[in-house]
Write a structure and sequence with these properties.
single chain; 136 residues; seven-stranded mixed beta sheet; 29% helix; alpha+beta
């Protein structure tokens, strides 16, 4: 399968269409645009002009990084698209992270192994709730 993975922001419409394909909540274009503009770093996967996957990072760009909205169109899942997106994100985070920085995410149930193979470790259930983090 030929697709490209590159740093960029999708349009609000592309992002909402991808979210809808995953069964996730969608938002009006002006809300989506405002959220996208708060993105520190974003990676998109395209098959031609079609957005097939993405992941984005929110945070301060030095100490705290939250990886979210990692999704791949169902018809492109299990093809390595998600792994390439996360690897690209982690390389950028690592170049910018101060020693002791943390990259965190919340995994969809059943995807913990996917993130575990990329260096994330489950956080024990405590008063903050379950999550996964990767330290740099």
């Amino acid at each position: 399968m030929a697709y490209i993975v590159e740093p960029c922001l999708p349009t609000a419409e592309q992002w909402m269409a991808l979210r809808a394909s995953m069964g996730w909540a969608t938002f009006p274009p002006e809300v989506a645009e405002k959220s996208l503009n708060a993105t520190w770093y974003c990676v998109c996967a395209f098959d031609g002009d079609k957005l097939i996957g993405m992941g984005r990072v929110l945070g301060d760009g030095v100490i705290s990084f939250y990886i979210g909205n990692v999704m791949v169109l169902p018809s492109y899942q299990n093809e390595g698209v998600g792994k390439r997106i996360i690897e690209r994100i982690l390389a950028h985070v690592e170049r910018n992270a101060a020693p002791g920085a943390i990259a965190s995410l919340f995994s969809i149930k059943g995807k913990e192994g996917f993130y575990g193979q990329l260096g994330f470790e489950p956080r024990p259930d405590d008063t903050r709730g379950p999550g996964m983090s990767r330290y740099f």
